[in-house]
Amino acid sequence: MNLRFFSSRTITWYMAKKFVLTSLGVLTALVLILQTLDLLGESGNILAYPGNGEPQLWQYVSLRIPQLIQRFLPFAVLLGAIITFVTLNQNSEIIAMKAAGVSAHQILAPLILASLFIAGLSLAFNERIVARATATLTAWEAADYGPIPKDRGVVSNVWVRDGDDLIHADQASGRGAAVQLTGVEVYDRIGGTLETIIRAQSARYDRGGWLLHDVRRFDVQRGVETTLPSLTVARGVTPDRFTLANVDADERNFAELRVAIADLQAAGRPTEALEAGLWHKLSGPLSSALMPLLAAVAAFGLARSGHLFVRAVIGMALGFAYFVADNFALAMGNIGAYPPMLAAWGPPILFFLIGETVLIRTEE
């Protein structure tokens, strides 16, 4: 019984190189087509802002392409594995390897190794580039494709509800009790009726409330405005409600998201959806290593039997079934129906067992 993981260095290098180049070609074609279609649909909105032109279109492309690569890399790996296996099967290379005593797992091993390398690159790419590009593009879209606000760790345009009252801040900066607000507006409502509008240049957290400075208070019923040097409002509204009001898992890397989740948990706020997104930052890239196993059904069987196309379709169906299950589990995790760990790691483990079962029962 042959227990070696790789059959030979030559076969390993040959198959891994063929697989990586094929997957790269598929990914390039997918990204080019999808980016062209996306740009056609969004170019009108970009050019609608006065002064925008071709440089802004290229800027949009530079921010959108990382998102497309992240989303469709596992698809490209799946299709690359299927094309590689079908080509090897049609050229009778699979038959030659099996005749030489190479097992099905040894035939699959070079692609698994290459896909693990791709998964590592994908993880680093997502952490270093995709999260930043997503945050920048979101801010640019919020500005209607005007000048992109510089990222200084400042949260802009924050709304917080305190009972019937609404509090708006143009900017919130800092962490914990050191949070500072600028451009503050407080809409004091009683029973849904607006009673008072309070505006202040700045505010800071002070003894359980928010101390406003340079205050203007407008009484809606009387139509009278008064000025005050300071005023304390919104007692019980904690600073994290301003700084963590809009935490998006896609816009933060793994370390930043862990810090945000810890802050939210310390404030007693629900974090299940963010925890699912946190673990999916690891399980998502690693799904690329699962694709060759799901596509392996296309590697075996006689090409002249006429079943090769059916096998390729089955491999593609298994891959796409995984993506459906992964998106469904993540959606269930976001609404709290699934535990975060199950939402992120359940589909990869399930489909790994399915792929191994199919491979062992049919080929080993």
From TrEMBL:
<protein>
    <submittedName>
        <fullName>Lipopolysaccharide export system permease protein</fullName>
    </submittedName>
</protein>
<feature type="transmembrane region" description="Helical">
    <location>
        <begin position="308"/>
        <end position="325"/>
    </location>
</feature>
<dbReference type="InterPro" id="IPR030923">
    <property type="entry name" value="LptG"/>
</dbReference>
<dbReference type="GO" id="GO:0055085">
    <property type="term" value="P:transmembrane transport"/>
</dbReference>
<keyword id="KW-0812">Transmembrane</keyword>
<dbReference type="GO" id="GO:0015920">
    <property type="term" value="P:lipopolysaccharide transport"/>
</dbReference>
<feature type="transmembrane region" description="Helical">
    <location>
        <begin position="337"/>
        <end position="360"/>
    </location>
</feature>
<dbReference type="Pfam" id="PF03739">
    <property type="entry name" value="LptF_LptG"/>
</dbReference>
<keyword id="KW-1133">Transmembrane helix</keyword>
<keyword id="KW-1003">Cell membrane</keyword>
<feature type="transmembrane region" description="Helical">
    <location>
        <begin position="282"/>
        <end position="301"/>
    </location>
</feature>
<dbReference type="InterPro" id="IPR005495">
    <property type="entry name" value="LptG/LptF_permease"/>
</dbReference>
<dbReference type="GO" id="GO:0043190">
    <property type="term" value="C:ATP-binding cassette (ABC) transporter complex"/>
</dbReference>
<keyword id="KW-0472">Membrane</keyword>
<feature type="transmembrane region" description="Helical">
    <location>
        <begin position="72"/>
        <end position="88"/>
    </location>
</feature>
<feature type="transmembrane region" description="Helical">
    <location>
        <begin position="108"/>
        <end position="125"/>
    </location>
</feature>
